[in-house]
Amino acid sequence: MTKKLPTIVIIGRPNVGKSTLFNRVIGKRHALVDDQPGVTRDRLYGQGDWDGVKFLLIDTGGVDGTGNALAKAVFSQTKQAISEADALWLVMDGRAGPVMLDVDVLNLARKSSKPTFYILNKMDTNSVTELSLPTFHEAGFDMMYPISSEHGRGVDALLDATLAVFKAEQSGSAVEDEPIKGIRVAIVGRPNVGKSTLTNTLLGSERMVTHDMAGTTRDSVDIAIESQGEQFVFVDTPGIKRKSKTETKLDKFSAIKALQAAERSDVVLLVIDGSEGITHQDLQLAKQIYKRDRPIAVIVNKWDKILDKKLTTKKYNDYIEEQFQEMRDFPVHHISAKTGEGISGIWALIKRIDRAARCQIPTSRLNKVLQTLQAHHHLPAYRDHHVKLNYITQTGIQPPEFVIFTNFPTGIPAAYRRYLSRGIQEELGMPGLPIRLKFKRK
């Protein structure tokens, strides 16, 4: 029987280097790192391996004590993460010395009764460390671990000490080794269209920070859930702004992270604000995802805010089809993430899209489809030559890939290629599903 991975939760005030430490240990740039306080706002999960011990590492938002709505939401996220922990890493800025917020986080850790490791970050030299230790002792911190998460100094000693706690518990017990499996779903869209609220509603718990400030979510965060006997892995992503509004390197990195999340997903849910309609940014985002061959479903959120009660879903779908033009066949689903309206239908939609992307069509059936398509719309001549489409075969899935053998591959116009693609998409039962169609000389 497998056992859950031991869990380490990183806590502390903003801008002490929690995300840099997370990235150092996990070994890839997963959390956003910047010198602005409060860059990490959601709980971010990563799997680590040190000296044969596998563990889960959770990065949390900074506890800032301001008392505003967003700070309270982040604080709630931190408390939920602490409840999942087997050990805590309380990170402080060793160069700055202890401040009142560090003591507040210390008290929070002590209330949990979880093993806590006090980490003095930004300790790049021995002389800095010697000057800092006494002041932290006076503030009530006992056993401390001076490190430099940016340069890796002292991190190995911290891991050794922390994982020594877990080794005895793991001995004789099998621990889950493989990454979480399931249909990977990326939730993308402009800032403040309700992506995190949708994720929370689907998961049934407030896993993501939700707030009416555009850009609240800045990391792509993987969250696993089982529903209706099937595994799903949701990736809630940062909002992607228009280039003219992407002013900081942090915003640019967030946009890259969101598109990367879409690339490694099986299904992409493009969330739009139904009360605002389709924007230029929605269209550009759809194009970016579609050209990466990712299946898209358009999720029309905030349907409860539509003021025109005569506007039916069919009329709205017609409007979407008109706006998306060549990509007009995307499946569309109307919801209110806030009230829960339409949420249950998303599960079936995701599974339907994923099945279509994995579908393998028998060659005999494909060639009947090809014959029918040619009979309905004859291929024009090419330089006085009769162009023949000899046969078709499927060569891949996710996305479905097909090769058509012909006597003149260069003689097939782009419009006819689109016609053939649409016909094959119809046969897959999923109009709008990206497919790759290649032509080879027979």
Quick synopsis:
The protein is of the alpha/beta class and 442 residues long. It is 36% helix and 22% strand. Strands 3-4-2-5-6-7 form a 6-stranded mixed sheet, with helices on both faces.
Can you give a write-up of this model?
This protein is an alpha/beta fold and 442 residues long. It has 3 domains: 174 residues, 3-Layer(aba) Sandwich (Rossmann fold); 176 residues, Rossmann fold, CATH 3.40.50.300; 79 residues, 2-Layer Sandwich (GMP Synthetase, Chain A, domain 3), CATH 3.30.300.20. 36% of the residues lie in helices and 22% in strands. The strands form 4 sheets. The protein has a 6-stranded mixed β-sheet, sandwiched between helices. It has a 6-stranded mixed β-sheet with strand order 10-11-9-12-13-14, sandwiched between helices. It has a 3-stranded mixed β-sheet with strand order 15-16-17. α9 links the parallel β13 and β14. The termini are far apart. About 8% of the residues have low confidence.
List keywords for this structure.
single chain; 442 residues; alpha/beta; Rossmann fold; GMP Synthetase, Chain A, domain 3; 3 domains; six-stranded mixed sheet; 12 helices; 17 strands; 36% helix; elongated
What's the helix and strand layout?
Blueprint: E1 2-3, E2 7-11, H1 18-26, E3 44-50, E4 53-59, H2 69-84, E5 87-93, H3 100-112, E6 116-121, H4 126-138, E7 144-146, H5 155-170, E8 174-175, E9 183-189, H6 195-203, E10 221-227, E11 230-236, H7 249-263, E12 267-273, H8 280-290, E13 296-301, H9 313-324, E14 332-334, H10 344-358, H11 363-376, E15 389-396, E16 401-406, H12 414-428, E17 436-441
Parallel strand pairs: 1-8, 2-4, 2-5, 5-6, 6-7, 9-11, 9-12, 12-13, 13-14, 16-17
Antiparallel strand pairs: 3-4, 10-11, 15-16
Helix pairs in contact: 11-12
